[in-house]
Amino acid sequence: xxxxxxxxxxxxxxxxxxxxxxxxxxxxxxxxxxxxxxxxxxxxxxxxxxxxxxxxxxxxxxxxxxxxxxxxxxxxxxxxxxxxxxxxxxxxxxxxxxxxxxxxxxxxxxxxxxxxxxxxxxxxxxxxxxxxxxxxxxxxxxxxxxxxxxxxxxxxxxxxxxxxxxxxxxxxxxxxxxxxxxxxxxxxxxxxxxxxxxxxxxxxxxxxxxxxxxxxxxxxxxxxxxxxxxxxxxxxxxxxxxxxxxxxxx
Length: 250
Prior knowledge:
Layout: E1 9-10, E2 24-25, H1 35-40, H2 79-88, H3 91-97, H4 109-113, H5 121-132, H6 141-147, H7 157-177, H8 187-208, H9 216-224, H10 230-238
Antiparallel strand pairs: 1-2
Helix pairs in contact: 3-10, 5-8, 6-7, 7-8, 8-9
């Protein structure tokens, strides 16, 4: 009796997180990815809940809710953003983003770089907006974030990442302050660097973990213009890391 030579093939239908369905089917697609099923499917954001603020804020550190006049960021579905992020994340851009890795402890790097993790991108966007708040420079936010973090935000991994970057920026500023002829630097540009770095790491995390279409960090950056090129990303990283700073070897 002749053998059946027909082999199952992957469905290859689009998933809610920007990937492709791998279910084996003799006649693709599977029932979840027929045109009728895709037309009826309602996509939901991959971050259904926002972190609850602390009932009793800590005594030290700025208040996050005071620096977020528009509230917590909302993730909206924009399927075209996934393709834009894919074209932007070239090997050169990824190499430039890897310059931020030495600024983070090894235990926190997989939160951003590993496909098996689930970074909270709305939290990164909220922290970036707080750093860009007009009230942040006057409140000494950079030093207070580096030392104590936000008083009303719990120990999220993204909160720790923001503190790691703020601490690296603070250490670089402290060394530059003791150099000959150093001038007093305004905190606003350094808080803007911190905000941009958090957003770029959010785009990287969502791209690697298959959620770029929902990424609020990516949506904010695209609303302001084109994404930074690899040279700009690398130059941004040098403004945090003392050993890799261009001015260190001058």
